[in-house]
Amino acid sequence: MRFLRQVMVVTAKDLRAEMRTKEAINASFAFALVVLLLLSFAFDPTEETTRDISGGLLWIVFTFAGTLVLNRSFARELPNDCLDALIAAPVPGAALFLGKGLANFVLILAVELVALPVFGIFYNVRWTRQFWPLMLVLVLGTWGLTSIGTVFSALTVNIRLREVMLPLLVYPVLIPMLLGAMRLSALLVAGQEVTGDETVWFKLLFGFDIIFTSLSLVLMDTVLLG
Amino acid sequence: MSDAAVDCAGVWKFYGDYPALRNITFQVPPGRCLALIGRNGAGKTTLLRILAGFSKPGKGQARIFGHEPRDTETRRRIGFIGHGIAVYDELSALENLRLFARLYRLPEPERAAREWLERTGLERVRDGLVREFSRGMRQRLAVARAFLHGPSVLLLDEPFTALDDRAVAVLQRVLRDALAAGCTVIMSTHQLREAMELATDVVLINRGRIAFHGERTEEMVSDPGWVYSRYGES
Asked: Which of A9, A68, A140, B85 lies in disulfide reach of B102, CB 3.0 to 4.6 Å?
C-alpha cells in the first residue's frame, strides 16, 4: 500500500510539472501531427496502400513522438539537482520507475489518442471498426515503449548528448514489440479480426511487457546509483 | 556495531585511477556537529555524497547508525543539502514540501509542510511557483525541504555559500534547534566563522586525506583560519 502511494506521488508530481510547462507534451503532439500530415502529402496513399502501411506508419510516429516525452522524464530532475533529493528520499527504485513510467504512459497515450483520429482524417481511414482490440494494442505497445524508455531515460540522464543517445539505445530493444504492434495495428485498422496464428503477436506484446517491466523494476536502483 | 551516528572506516574513492578520497576514517557520535573543511577539490563533496548514499566507496565502508546509507530506513534518517536547492521550479512551495513529506511517509504531510513554511518565513508565498521566487526564498525552501522529515543526521554541503542574510539566520536557527534536539550534523564549508560557531569537531581534508581531526577549540573560534595555518597545505 505504501509502495503504491509512493508510486502515485511520483506520477502526480511528474504530471503536474508537465501540465505546468507543457514542454514534452506540446513537442510530442506537434511532432506526431506534422509527420502524419507530411507523409499524407508525400505519398498520397490509396486505400489499399494505407491498409498496408498503417501499422508501420502509426508506430513509427508513436515511437518518435514518445521519445520526446521520455527524454524529458529524468531530464526534468536535473535543474536544481532534484534527482539527488529524489534518490535521497526513502523511495525504492522500483517505485520511482513505476511512478515515472505511469506518468510517461499517460502522456504518450494522450498523444496517441489525438494522433489516431488525425491519422483517420488525413488518410481517409475508418480506424474504429476494431476499436477495443486496437486500444489493447495501443496500451500494450505504449507500456513496452514506456518501460524501456523510462529506464534508459534514467541511464542517459547525465550524458551530454542524451537526446541522441536515448533513441539509439531504445529503438533496437523495441524491435520485437514494434513488430507485434505494427502487424496487429495494420490488421485492426483494416477492420480485420485477429485470429489463428496472428494471436501470437498479442502473446509477444504481453511477454515483452512482462519481461521488460520485471527487469526494469529489479534494475532501477542499480541504474540510478551504479 | 558502533554507537557512532556516522562511521567512516577506511573509505577510498577513485575517479579512474585518481584517488579522490584516501583512507578516510572517523566517527561522529550522536548530537555532534562536524565541520568538514578543506580547499576546493579536497574531497569534501565526494565524502558527503558517499555518506548520503549517492555514490559507493571504492574501498572501505560508510555507515549511518550502523547501517548502509542506501537502506530505505536509513534514508529516512538523513537530511541532505547539496549544491542545488533540490526543489522543483514548476511546483509551488507548498506542493514541493508536501511532495517530499509524502515521499518520506510523514503521517501528516500537509501539516508538516505548512509548519516548515512558517518556520522558514515562506507561509505568505506558499502557493507561489518556485520559479518566481527570489534566490533567498529558494534557499530557505531548500532548508525546509532538508529538515522537513526530522532527520537524525544532517549532511550539508557548503550550506552557507551564497545565502542572503535572512537565509543564513534561518539556517543557523534551525541548525541550533536540530543540534539541541540531538541531531548529528556534518557540514562542509568555506565559511569558517559560521562553521566554527556551530561545530563541536573539525576535520580538515587535504587532497583526499585527513590532515587534522579533533575537537573544536576556542583558538579556532577566535581565529577561524587556525587549522589551515597549522595543518593545511602551504
From this structure: A9
On whether any CB of chain A is under 8 Å from the CB of B14, the answer is: no
How far apart are the C-alpha atoms of B62 and B52, rounded to whole Å?
9
B58 closest CA partner among B16, B27, B26 = B16
Q: Are B85 and B140 in contact (CB under 8 A)?
A: no
Q: What is the ipTM of this complex?
A: 0.87
* Span A162-209, pLDDT tens digits: 888 899 999 999 999 999 999 999 999 999 998 888 999 999 999 999
The domains of chain B, with CATH numbers, are 6-231 (3.40.50.300)
Over the stretch A109-162, which tens digit does the pLDDT of each residue have? Answer: 999 999 999 999 999 888 999 999 999 999 999 999 999 999 999 999 888 888
Cβ–Cβ below 8 Å for B86 and A16: no
A13 touches chain B (CB under 8 A): yes
At residue B44, the 3 state secondary structure works out as helix
Smallest Cβ distance to B52: which of A2, A6, A88?
A88
Residue B226's pLDDT band (boundaries 50, 70, 90)? confident
Cell output for A115 = 494522433
* Cβ contact B88:A17 at 8 Å: yes
Mutate to test the interface with A, among B50, B90, B145 (most CBs of A within 10 A): B90
Grid coordinates given for A142? 505504449
Q: Are B77 and B53 in contact (CB under 8 A)?
A: no
Residue A206: strand, helix, or coil:
helix
Across the range B51-79, mean pLDDT stands at 93
Burial zone of A131 (CB within 10 Å; 0-12 exposed, 13-18 middle, 19+ buried): exposed
- Inter-chain residue contact B91 with A80, CB threshold 8 Å: no
**Facing A81 at nearest CB: one of B55, B72, B86:** B86
Residues 89 through 128 of chain A touching chain B, CB cutoff 8 Å: 89-92
Which of the two residues, B88 and A158, has the higher pLDDT score? B88
**Cβ separation B145–A225 shorter than 8 A:** no
Q: How far apart are CA A120 and CA A38, in angstroms?
A: 14
Domain boundaries, chain A: 2-225
Q: What is the DSSP string of B107-127?
A: S-HHHHHHHHHHHTT-GGGTT
